[in-house]
C-alpha cells in the first residue's frame, strides 16, 4: 500500500496533473463569464447533499476520476460568482491571476506565524501591509497583519482597544464594570459579536442612530457625553466605511474629531469600503480615516481577490502586539527592533500565505488598475439606481455611495419577489431589512457585469412581480 501511495504522491506533483485542475477551474470561470448557465444551482439543497452521501473512501481513485467528479458534482452545484447576473452578497468574482497564485501559496505551504517558517512570505506580507497603511494615511509606526476577514480584523482591533483601556484584562479579566463599545445602528454584526467574545457582553454595545444610513455624528456626541456623565468607560467607537446594508460611509472626519477630543479609540470597519483608497474618484469618501487607531480591510471584497484575504491595520503596530499578551518560547523569539513575526499580533497561529494573492493582483493590474475596477463597479451601481428611478414598479431607498444599492418593488412582498426571481436562474440578488421593511439589495461585484445586465435585472424582477 505505502509503495503505491508514494508513487501516486510523485505523479500528482507533476505539471501534467496540475493542469487538470487548472483546466476545470478556468473552464468554470470562462463559462460563467459568458452568462450562459443559470446563476445558482438548479438542484435542491437536499439533492446536492445526496450527491455526496457515501462512506469514507478506503482506497484511492485515479486523479482523472477525482478531477472529473469535482467538475461534475462540485462546480456544477456551486454558486456562479463570475456570472454577470450574480448581484448578490459581497463575495467577488475573483481575479484569475490571484486564483492561480492561491495554488502557489498552497504548494509552498509556509505558515506565516513566524519569519523562520516563511522568510519570503513574511517579507511580502509586511510589504503589502506597508503599502496599505500608507494608503490609509498612517506613518512609520503603523503596521498590521492579514486576517481571515473583516470579522476577525474587527475582533483583533477591539482586542487591542481592550488592552489599551483595561491593561490587566488578559491576566485578571474585566471586573464587575466592563467598558462599553459605541457603534452605529447599521454596523456589521462583527462589532456586537466582538463585544460578546471579549467578555463585555452584547448589552455593552451602545448603538448610535443613523441619519441617511450613516452614523449620526451629533447623536454620537450626545451619547458619549451622557456616558461620561454617568461614569461609564468607553473602550472604543466603531465607525463604518462601506456598510453591509447600503454601502454607506460614516463621516470619518467628524467622528474622528469627536473621538480624538475625548481620547477614545476609533476603529473603522472598512472591510468593504477601504478599497476606495485605490480610486482617485472615491477616495474622498474616506477622508478622516487617518484619525482611526485601527482599520479592518478586506481585499477579498472590492480588490476582487479570492477568499480569504482580510487585514487589520493599526496606527501604531505595538497596539496589536499588546492585544495578544502571551509568550510561546517554542515559537516566538525575542528580536531587536520591530518584531518580524506576524503571529504575535494575530489570532491565528497556522496562517496561510494570503498576502500572495493581494501582491499578485497588485503586480498584475497595478493599484490604479484595481482602482479602475472599483470605479467601474460603482458606476454600474449608479446606472442601476437610474434605471430603478425610471421604472414605475420600483422605488429607490437611497442613492448608492459604492457598489451596494437597496430598492423596493411597490405594493409587493419583496422577500417573496426575491425568491421567485432567484429561483428562475436568470439572476441572483439578496435582501435586507431597512427601517423594519424587507427590501431588495444588490451588490455589483463582477467586472463582467454591464449596463445591459443591470437593465435585465430590473426587467426580470418586473416580470417576476406578475
Topology:
Blueprint: H1 2-12, H2 15-33, H3 45-51, H4 63-74, E1 86-87, H5 96-108, H6 119-135, E2 143-147, H7 150-165, H8 169-172, E3 180-184, H9 189-197, E4 205-208, E5 210-211, E6 214-215, H10 217-229, E7 234-240, H11 252-262, E8 266-269, E9 294-297, H12 299-302, E10 310-314, H13 318-323, H14 355-390, E11 394-396, E12 404-409, H15 414-423, E13 428-434, E14 437-443, H16 451-465
Parallel strand pairs: 1-13, 3-4, 3-7, 7-8, 8-9
Antiparallel strand pairs: 2-10, 5-6, 9-10, 11-12, 12-14, 13-14
Structure description:
The chain is α/β, with parallel strands linked by helices. The protein has three domains: 2-33 and 41-77; 103-360, Aspartate Aminotransferase, domain 2, CATH 3.40.640; 366-465, Alpha-Beta Complex (Aspartate Aminotransferase, domain 1), CATH 3.90.1150. Helices cover 44% and strands 14% of the residues. The protein is built from 16 helices and 14 strands. It has a seven-stranded mixed sheet, with helices on both faces. A five-stranded mixed sheet has the order 1-13-14-12-11. It has a two-stranded antiparallel ribbon with strand order 5-6. Helix 5 (96-108) packs antiparallel against helix 14, helix 6 (119-135) packs parallel to helix 14 (355-390) and helix 14 crosses helix 16 (451-465). It is globular, with a radius of gyration of 24 Å.
Amino acid at each position: 500500500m505505502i509503495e503505491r501511495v508514494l508513487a501516486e504522491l510523485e505523479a500528482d506533483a507533476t505539471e501534467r496533473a496540475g493542469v487538470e485542475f487548472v483546466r476545470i477551474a478556468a473552464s468554470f470561470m470562462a463559462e460563467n463569464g459568458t452568462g450562459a448557465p443559470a446563476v445558482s444551482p438548479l438542484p435542491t439543497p437536499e439533492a446536492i447533499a445526496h450527491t455526496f452521501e457515501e462512506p469514507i473512501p478506503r482506497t484511492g481513485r485515479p486523479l482523472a476520476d477525482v478531477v472529473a467528479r469535482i467538475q461534475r458534482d462540485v462546480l456544477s452545484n456551486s454558486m456562479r460568482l463570475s456570472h454577470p447576473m450574480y448581484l448578490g452578497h459581497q463575495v467577488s468574482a475573483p481575479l484569475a491571476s490571484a486564483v492561480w497564485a492561491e495554488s502557489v501559496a498552497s504548494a509552498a505551504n509556509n505558515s506565516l506565524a513566524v519569519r523562520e517558517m516563511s522568510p519570503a512570505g513574511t517579507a511580502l506580507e509586511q510589504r503589502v501591509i506597508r503599502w496599505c497603511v500608507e494608503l490609509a494615511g498612517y506613518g512609520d509606526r503603523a503596521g498590521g497583519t492579514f486576517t481571515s476577514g473583516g470579522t476577525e480584523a474587527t475582533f483583533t482591533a477591539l482586542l487591542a482597544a481592550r488592552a489599551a483601556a483595561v491593561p490587566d484584562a488578559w491576566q485578571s479579566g474585566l471586573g464587575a464594570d466592563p467598558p462599553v463599545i459605541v457603534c452605529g445602528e447599521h454596523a456589521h454584526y462583527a462589532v456586537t459579536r466582538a463585544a460578546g467574545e471579549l467578555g463585555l457582553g452584547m448589552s455593552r454595545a451602545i448603538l448610535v442612530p443613523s441619519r441617511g444610513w450613516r452614523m449620526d455624528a451629533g447623536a454620537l456626541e450626545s451619547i458619549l457625553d451622557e456616558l461620561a456623565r454617568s461614569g461609564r468607560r468607553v473602550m472604543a467607537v466603531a465607525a463604518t466605511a462601506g456598510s453591509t446594508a447600503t454601502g454607506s460611509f460614516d463621516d470619518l472626519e467628524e467622528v474622528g474629531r469627536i473621538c480624538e477630543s475625548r481620547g477614545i479609540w476609533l476603529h473603522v470597519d472598512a472591510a468593504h469600503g477601504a478599497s476606495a483608497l485605490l480610486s482617485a474618484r472615491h477616495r474622498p469618501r474616506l477622508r478622516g480615516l487617518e484619525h482611526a487607531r485601527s482599520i479592518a480591510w478586506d481585499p477579498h471584497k472590492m480588490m476582487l481577490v479570492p477568499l480569504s484575504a482580510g487585514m487589520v491595520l493599526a496606527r501604531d503596530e505595538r497596539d496589536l502586539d499588546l492585544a495578544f499578551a502571551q509568550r510561546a518560547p517554542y515559537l516566538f523569539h525575542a528580536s531587536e527592533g520591530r518584531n518580524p513575526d506576524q503571529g504575535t499580533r494575530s489570532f491565528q497561529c497556522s496562517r496561510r500565505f494570503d498576502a500572495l494573492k493581494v501582491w499578485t493582483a497588485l503586480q498584475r493590474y497595478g493599484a490604479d488598475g484595481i482602482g479602475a475596477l472599483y470605479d467601474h463597479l460603482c458606476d454600474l451601481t449608479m446606472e442601476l439606481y437610474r434605471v430603478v428611478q425610471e421604472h414605475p414598479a420600483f422605488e429607490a431607498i437611497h442613492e448608492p455611495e459604492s457598489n451596494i444599492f437597496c430598492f423596493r418593488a411597490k405594493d409587493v412582498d419583496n422577500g417573496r419577489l426575491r425568491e421567485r426571481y432567484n429561483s428562475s436562474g436568470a439572476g441572483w440578488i439578496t435582501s435586507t431589512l431597512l427601517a423594519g421593511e424587507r427590501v431588495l439589495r444588490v451588490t455589483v461585484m463582477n467586472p463582467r457585469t454591464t449596463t445591459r445586465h443591470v437593465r435585465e435585472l430590473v426587467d426580470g424582477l418586473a416580470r417576476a412581480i406578475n
